[in-house]
Structures are given as C-alpha cells and as structure tokens.
Design a protein that fits this description.
By secondary structure, the chain is of the alpha/beta class. It has 11 helices and 8 strands. It folds into 2 domains: 234 residues, Phosphoenolpyruvate-binding domains (TIM Barrel), CATH 3.20.20.60; 29 residues, no CATH class. α4 runs parallel beside α5, α5 crosses α6 and α8 packs parallel to α9. The chain binds 3-methyl-2-oxobutanoic acid. 3-methyl-2-oxobutanoic acid (KIV) binds next to β6.
C-alpha cells in the first residue's frame, strides 16, 4: 500500500525530483476512484463553483460549501486503498477581512471539514493572514499567477506574468510566501519560463496548472481532464477521457431501453 502523503512527503518528492500529482475532486465516489488510482493529493478547489454549481466564476463559493465538499473527500480518503494529501481552498473573502476572521475560517475548514491544508490566492498582500494560519499549525499552499478569485481585477481569465514588472512581482510573491512558511505554491496561467525560474529559485515544490513543464508537480480540474466540463476548455487542459460522450450515450441507451420495455429484463428483476 502507498504510504500516506503529507506536506512533508511533498518536500521529499521535490528533493528526490519526483513529480507531484494533484487533481480536484468534490464528491465521494469520484474522489475514491481518483485516490485509488494513486494520485498524491486532492484539491477541494473553489472551482466547484463552476463544475458543481454552474457559476461562471469561483467567487460565489462559501466556507460552508468548502466544508461540505471536503467532508466527502475525507471520507473517500479514509475508505480508499491509498491516502492522498487533502487540501481545501479558502473561498473569496474568507481571508481578506481580518487576520482573526482568516484563522477562524481556516480553522473551520480543518476542524469541521477535515482538510489537512488550506490554499489561498495571493502573495505579499495576504502575507499576515498566511503567517497567522501557519502559526495556528495549519499548513498553507500558496497560489500565484492567474488567480481566479481576481478575475474582475484582471479583467478576465488572462495569462499573468508576461511583462517584466508583473513577472518580477510574481517571483517576489513566491519568495515571500516561501519565507512565510507555505509548504508549496500553485502557479497558474503563467509563461513556462517564469514558472521554471520560480521552481528553480524555491526549495519548496511548485504545482503548475497552465504553467508548463518545469513545475515540481501538476494539478488539473478533474471534470476538465475527464472531458466532462466543456463550457470552456482552456489551452492547458488535456482531456484524458471523453466522459461527456460516454455519459450521454449511456443515458440515451437507458432512456431508449426503459421506453422500449427492454429494461428491466428478467436478469434485473427479483423473484
Ligand atoms: O479551484 C481550483 O480548482 C484551483 C485549481 C485550478 C488550482 O484552484
């Protein structure tokens, strides 16, 4: 059996040059499949606003939503054959009001939801909150670059760090987060060269999404990589399956068989 992945294992993986795998999941049955397949870590991402709730941004997600979904993943992790690291997103505005409010919200996600770490978007501007959460003994994952909670400030989901000033700010934010004690940083939607430089400068692991080949690990939204969520498919998404077609065809088949009387046949009937 694969040993439990922890924040310490993350660091060991980087030290050994072994790539880290992370996928999002939001419900028990999908999470159990993903964990049993051997993924290192699960992110209960605020992308659930889009994939589970049908919104067009991550902004509407609440702390209660994250706790609700985290509980299901924790249950899946307990019943799976291998045990992934469970990281939950802190939603928009759950760490912006005050340090006290931030600790309370991070604490709820760990205490009520069962997450083993929380992820926050931003660098120097949220460093006091990051330090306070770490002081409360909760491991923190950073998130820089195209941070989706800033969609309105960015004027859309746009690749970040293309100009020198912006690239320097992202690098400075990464170094500040590392100094503050985060165990890892997600780099999203930035040029590969910048992600490479950051990954080489940091001793902690970077996890890329739309950040090219040189990060220490990769994360994707599960529904994206399974071809289940086609509302918008970004360039960086590789669809490893076409569940959209598989599910549609299975459901059409079911409708047809119920209507024709072929289902349920004797095989599926109690005597
Ligand atoms: O919410 C999410 O799924 C994320 C990943 C895209 C990194 O933050």
């Amino acid at each position: 059996m694969k040993k439990k992945v922890t924040v310490k294992t993350y660091q060991e993986f980087k030290n050994e040059g072994r790539k880290i795998t992370m996928l999002t999941a939001y419900d028990y049955s999908m999470a159990k499949l993903v964990i049993d397949a051997g993924v290192d870590s699960i992110l209960i991402g605020d992308s659930l606003a889009m994939t589970m709730q049908g919104h067009d941004s991550t902004l509407p997600v609440t702390v209660d939503d994250i706790i609700y979904h985290t509980k299901m993943i924790v249950q899946a992790n307990a019943n799976a054959n291998t045990h992934a690291l469970i990281v939950s997103d802190m939603p928009f505005l759950s760490y912006h009001v005050s340090v006290e409010d931030t600790i309370r919200n991070a604490g709820r996600i760990v205490k009520e939801g069962g997450a083993e770490a929380v992820k926050l978007e931003g660098g120097c501007s949220i460093i006091d909150q990051v330090k306070a959460i770490i002081d409360a003994q909760i491991p923190v994952m950073g998130h820089l670059g195209l941070t989706p909670q800033s969609v309105n400030a960015f004027g859309g989901f746009k690749v970040q760090g293309r100009d020198e000033e912006n690239a320097k700010r992202i690098l400075d934010d990464a170094l500040a987060l590392q100094d503050a004690g985060v165990f890892s940083i997600v780099l999203e939607g930035i040029p590969e060269t910048l992600a490479k430089e950051i990954s080489e400068r940091l001793f902690i692991p970077t996890i890329g999404i739309g950040a090219g080949r040189y990060c220490d690990g990769q994360v994707l939204v599960l529904q994206d990589m399974l071809g289940m969520y086609n509302d918008f498919v970004p360039k960086f998404v590789k669809q490893y399956a076409d569940l959209n077609s598989i599910i549609t065809s299975a459901v059409k088949n079911y409708i047809h068989e119920v209507q024709s009387g072929d289902f349920p046949s004797e095989e599926y009937t109690y005597k």
